[in-house]
Amino acid sequence: MIVDQPVDQPRWLDEHEMAAWLPLLRVVQLLPRALDTQLRAEAGVNHTYYMLLATLSAAPDRRLSMTDLAHRAATSQSRLTHAVDSLEKRGWVRRAQCPVDGRKQYAELTDAGLAELEELAPLHVAEVRRLVFDALDPDEVEQLRTLSRTILDNLQEETP
Questions:
Q1: Which domain holds residue 107?
Q2: Can you name the residues that pair with 96 across neighbouring β-strands?
Q3: Is residue 147 included in any domain, yes or no?
Q4: What are phi and psi for residue 65, nearest 5 degrees?
Q5: CA separation for the pair 9, 6 (Å, rounded)
Q6: Phi and psi at residue 98, to the nearest 5°
Q7: Residue 101 domain-assigned (yes or no)
């Protein structure tokens, strides 16, 4: 229920909303940190780097434009450039120029990058399962999917 408030005042979260919001904030902070810890121990990479490898592995020809990759990874071009530099030094990703538009650059997952991802994926999935899904029953997983999708759709409307 929305309480009438002056237009210049924010709509403060009520007690029920705060009880949902504060734990969500903790999840948003703690889950990436926990996933980073596991991935750093196993491969010396953070969750963002893993996500880039996984995203490229699912793309046609294991290749995406840098712009598309930044969008799918929800990161800035400058952070993506730094990440791709690091992955390129490891031999897991290579850059390629677009043959049609010289201004456009692609990131491609190499065979070595795919092999690394295939080695890491079972460990990563086990950690995701341990941290998230093992604590939920099937109905809660469906609720999580629905809520996450709703929030994500709203966020994507807000970002270019």
A1: 31-158
A2: 106
A3: yes
A4: -65, 155
A5: 5
A6: -70, 130
A7: yes
What pTM, to 2 d.p., does this model score? 0.80
pLDDT at 160 over 70: no
pLDDT for 52-74, tens place per residue? 999 999 999 999 999 999 999 88
> DSSP string spanning the chain?
-PPP--TTS-----HHHHHHHHHHHHHHHHHHHHHHHHHHHHHS--HHHHHHHHHHHHSGGGEEEHHHHHHHTT--HHHHHHHHHHHHHTTSEEEEE-SS-TT-EEEEE-HHHHHHHHHHHHHHHHHHHHHTGGG--HHHHHHHHHHHHHHHHHHHHH--
What's the domain count of the chain? 1
Name the phi and psi angles at 71, rounded to 5.
-65, -45
Q: Which residues contact 73 (CB under 8 A, 6 or more apart)?
A: 48, 51, 52, 55, 80
With respect to residue 74, please indicate whether it lies within any of the assigned structural domains: yes
The CATH number of the domain where 66 resides is what?
A: 1.10.10.10
Q: What is d(CA 57, CA 78) in angstroms, rounded to the nearest whole number?
A: 22
The CA–CA distances, whole Å, from 34 to 31, 83, 91, 120, 132 equal: 5, 19, 26, 15, 11
Which pLDDT does position 121 carry in this prediction? Answer: 93
Domain membership flag for residue 133: yes
